[in-house]
Automatic annotation (TrEMBL):
InterPro entries: AAA+_ATPase (IPR003593), ABC_transporter-like_ATP-bd (IPR003439), ABC_transporter-like_CS (IPR017871), ABC_transporter_ATP-bind (IPR050166), P-loop_NTPase (IPR027417). GO terms for molecular function: ATP binding; ATP hydrolysis activity. Keywords: ATP-binding, Nucleotide-binding, Transport. Residues 18-249 form the ABC transporter domain. This is ABC transporter ATP-binding protein. The keyword Disulfide bond does not apply. It comes from the Bacteria. It comes from Borborobacter arsenicus. PROSITE patterns: ABC_TRANSPORTER_1 (PS00211), ABC_TRANSPORTER_2 (PS50893). Transmembrane segments: none annotated. The keyword ATP-binding applies. Belongs to the ABC transporter superfamily.
Length: 264
């Protein structure tokens, strides 16, 4: 781990993470009003990994977008690292459901495209990108274009792009939705490793309760729209966790069953 990553988040106290207070959000106007969120309160500690789960359309993405400044909540207050959210803040990074790689750039160039907004020195960027691509098994594919990569490989590049920024706060929206089960588990393990090596605070939106339980310190369960928080479940499985092993762990299955029951 490089020295700049080791220091990440160290200037923030645990309580200076993400604070969401009484946030409500309505889309549209007139007779086409959709209340997406109602009086949501959430407190996320620095360095923790928290997942948001809930039925389709319950407002997970809306809440994530409000936390990272892409959508402005209409009521309530949000602070991230003690400051109001703003899109493009250098201490936050957002990864979307689809990998959204630029097809005319190679894997390395796709990562660099984001990283050069934060680091001017090309040699430093090249070193960081090469190390991260190698760490996720893409060392030989740095010069490949997205069309030459599988879906799982493209998602890996997108993960590298997100974590290469060394942002203190990382927001992930269904990053592994479209992957087969085995690739998904491999990428989940890579995500845990990137998170633990960067000391970042991660908020993950997912439909997959097993994924939420395997990766998170806490799983926040939302009600159907208008989204409210109906449960906040601490996942006490010790770390380091191996996602593959968890699938044969009865305690893990109990946690997932409990999450299902809360969702219903
Ligand atoms: N830009 C928008 N304009 C109008 N309505 C919207 C907009 N974005 C989201 N909505 C509505 O707000 C509600 C919450 O949407 P959101 O995408 O936050 O839910 P979600 O839980 O992330 O859904 P999914 O799990 O299906 O991705 C939905 O009913 C959706 O139709």
């Amino acid at each position: 781990m490089s020295a700049d990553v080791a220091g990440l988040g160290k200037n923030l106290s645990p309580g200076q993470g993400i604070k969401v207070h009484q946030v409500s959000h309505i889309y549209g106007g007139g007779d086409r009003v959709v209340q997406a969120l109602r009086e949501v309160n959430l407190d996320i500690e620095v360095g923790s990994f928290v997942s948001l789960v809930g039925a389709s359309g319950c407002g997970k993405t809306t809440l994530l977008d409000i936390m990272c400044g892409l959508t402005e909540g209409q009521q309530g207050t949000v602070t991230v690292g003690g400051l109001p959210p703003r899109a493009g803040r250098p201490d936050t990074a957002r990864m979307f459901a689809r990998d959204a790689l630029l097809p005319w750039l190679t894997a390395e160039q796709n990562v660099d495209y984001a990283l050069k907004t934060r680091i001017a020195d090309a040699a430093t960027r090249r070193r960081r990108i090469a190390a991260l691509l190698a760490a996720v098994g893409l060392g030989d594919f740095a010069h490949a274009y997205p069309r030459q990569l599988s879906q799982g490989m493209r998602q890996r590049v997108a993960l590298v792009r997100t974590f290469s920024l060394h942002s203190e706060f990382v927001f992930l929206d269904e990053p592994f939705g479209a992957l087969d089960a085995l690739t998904k588990i491999t990428l989940q393990e890579e995500l845990i490793r990137l998170w633990s090596e960067t000391n970042s605070t991660v908020v993950l939106v997912t439909h997959d309760l097993s994924e939420a339980a395997a990766l998170s310190d806490r799983v926040v369960v939302m009600s159907p729209r208008p989204g409210r928080i109906v449960a906040d479940v601490k996942i006490d499985i010790p770390r380091p966790r191996r996602v593959k092993d968890l699938h044969s762990n009865p305690e893990f299955h109990e946690i997932v069953a409990d999450l299902w029951a809360r969702l219903e």
